[in-house]
Amino acid sequence: MRTRNAGAKRQGFTLIELIGVLAVMAIIAAMILPDMIKAITSAESDAEQQSLKNLAKGLEQHIFQNRTIPGTTAVAAAGGAPAVPIWDQAIADQVQLPVGKVNTNDRNQPRYYLWDNGVTPAIPYQQTSATASALTAGTRPRIIIISSIGPTLTGLASGGLATATFDTLWTWDENTPTALSAYGISTNDQAKQVRIQRINLEQFFNAVALSNRASTASGRTSFVSAATGTAQTVMTINASATANLTIGALRYNVYAFQTNMPDSLGTPISVSISSGATTFGTVANANAGSGGFITGAGTPLGPLTATTLVSVTMTLPAGYTSGSGTVDVDVDLSSDTYYNLDTETATTTIASSAMANLIVLQNTRLNLYNNATTPTVMQSYFITAADSFWFSPGPPAVWGR
User: Fold this and answer.
1) Quick check: helix, strand or coil at residue 137?
2) pTM for the whole structure
3) Per-residue pLDDT reduced to its tens digit, 40-53
């Protein structure tokens, strides 16, 4: 018969001891579980905020590359301007994610894409020469991407909001949950589970000024024993291949005109400047060393469609039979010129002596054309800051900045 050794060690826990251990563990779990849940929620919230930042970078990259601002409806390509995709597709293409991973977060809650309807340009925005020239100084678009990893946001849908409503979200912070009460958020804990990413597009727009200036062509004619009233060509202007070439103001200078009379150095003459049957103007009693603008009937002349001869006629006073001297003439020329943006197929005209003011998106390629009747690109610039350019019709035609 076996007998139990009273000195042998006892193995395991008694039932009472096991219940006690479990009770202690339950108390500890009850103490730390809320903190663990908060830590997990905080980590998910931080992860969602980082995701929204990445989506914002994708949106900015899309704007930089395509010069379009997406909205909730697609816009087809037109006239060489690229198509504008829906916002989630535009971002998905940049961040290499499925569209469903852009418009929905890891908690399977929707992400909302919102913008201020009270500013220009309207979203979706497809940049063309026409839309860029229509923009004026003012506030530029602001965009919000917002989502929740907790309670579902109610009463929201991606799209444009009135400025006052949009400003409520733009200025909201998680310590003021009542600002989101219209969207089903009422407590601080709920507010801390809402993530928002703000994107201000002001930095993406630059002002560009294009000025179409007049240029000056100069010529000189000399009279040596010229018969009074004889027209002599000062210059030839070939306008046959130039768009809307126009002669504007003219200036003249008379130099040391001498005649056969003793007082010839002070002899006044009459100067007439003309082209064919058109007389720009006549100056009577022009003394040697005199000069100025010539205005009158036929000024300005244009648009010219063929070769134009600018002539000077000198007329001596009565009793003077011959003379010699020189007359200089400066002619202001102006013409149309053209520009377009990026891959546009059509050009936009800048009329003679006019300006075009544009507000374009960052990295826009500005194409500047000559003044030919069939224009070709002279220069192209990528716009990265506010800039200005000027055109002179020449000859030769030139763009400067």
Assistant:
1) coil
2) 0.79
3) 666 788 899 999 99
